[in-house]
Every structure is written in structure tokens, then in C-alpha cells.
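pinned: reference chain
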Amino acid sequence: MSARTTIRAIPTLLRIGIAETIAYRAEFLIWMLTTTMPLVMLALWSSVAHDGPFRGYDSNRFVAYYLLALIVRNLTSSWVVWQINDEVRRGVLAMRLLRPVHPFVAYTATHISAVPLRGLIVLPVAVIMLVSSARGELITDPTRLALLAPSLAMAWAITFTLMLAIGSLAFFFDKSMAVMDVYFGVFAVFSGYLLPLSTMPGWLQHTAHYLPFRYVLSAPIELVLKPAPGVPTASTLELVGGQAVWVVVMFTLALTLWRAGVRRFEAVGA
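pinned: its C-alpha cells
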């Protein structure tokens, strides 16, 4: 596979990805609806905060946090793990391996092409935030605001490569999708998906700093959300630098598992 072949194939792969997303729009919308947990948590914690701030979070701050969580989650989630599992199980992957473009490139193009359509869905949420009282909880530092787009891109890359790594386990285990149940449970706690990390016990916050989940969801939120009163805030370098490190780590892990899995896949007659 040459770099020239890959570059020439990318526009076509993007068009195919967009066409597939539009063709399977019902499934796409159903998938998007599975990321609405922040709205449930928003209703719960807004009610709690009406009686008084909870660890620096009042109603407006909870609104801002969970609307940001909804936006980040929608723009950065990935379903490639299910795609890989299905292709391995049905043997369709054999045809993908014969193509001149590395499967990672094809998967990336397919899933990136869906991001603009997700943007159309989260746009109303962003507008609601900007016209509501939640806008007062957003920072105005131009440096941090300028880093939001790169931070979202890296959050997407961490999620995507992590899903590639979990998907590659299908080469080794028949029930590899069970790993996703464990993943989502850990992700929900250590990413800030259910509750802002700064409101959790100290040991859990400390642990979250050394796991990739914080940099998938909480980091972009922390980048643009004003710090809660009396709560230490992470530096821009810690947030964005941590994301960059995890992009490299997860890509390396995914590629290692994939290569080992493909060798096993081919060894059994694929």
C-alpha cells in the first residue's frame, strides 16, 4: 500500500461514508439517541442543585456541563467496534484485507464522514446553550476557545482508536463484545459522563487523570467551562497534552492488536 494510493482513495472513501450514513439514516438517528444520558443526568442534578450548590455546581453550571457533555459525546463517539466484530464474524473482513488501502484508513474515512451530520444534530443544543443562562458558565479566554476544535478532534481519535483496539479482540475471542459492557461502565464513571469529575471523591479524580476516559469527554468540557468556586483547575497543557499522549498510546495499542489478530485470522484460512 503506497501513500499515493491511500491519499487518492480518501475522497472516494469519504463519499462512500456519507452515502452510507444517509442510506442508513434511521440507524444513525437511533445511534445518536443512545448518547442522550447527559439529558437524564441534567434533569436529576438540576433538581438537586435547586436546594443549593453541590460541590461548586449550581443549576446553571449543571446545565452548561451536561449540554457540553451531550455535544462532546455526539461528536466523538464511534461504532467501529461493532463494524469490526460483524466483519470478522461473517468473514467479510477477508475482502477488505485484499484492498490496497489499509482497513484503518477505510474505517477512519467512513466514521469521519458522519461527523458533519452529527454536527447538524448537536447544533440546536449549542444554540440553546448560547442563548440560555448556561452561557455565563463558559470561559472567554481566546486561547482555550481556539483549542476546542483540536481537543474535540483528539477526543474523537482516542475514542476511535480505543474502539479499534476493542474491535480487534474479535480475532481472539468469540464474545469480544462483552468487553464493551465493561468499557462503558468504566467510561461512564471515569470520563465524567454521569457526574463531573470535580464532584467525585479525590481518589477517583486522581485515578481518572491516568486513564484515557477523562480525555475522551471531560477534557474538552474542562477546556471551555469556567472553574467551579474553590476547585483546582487543570492547565491547558495538561488537558491538550494529555489528549495528544493518549492518541499515540491508543493508536499504537490498536495497531499492535490488529496486526496480531490479522495474522491469526489469515492462519485459519481467511
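why pinned: The radius of gyration is 20 Å. Residues 113 and 160 are 13 Å apart (CA to CA).
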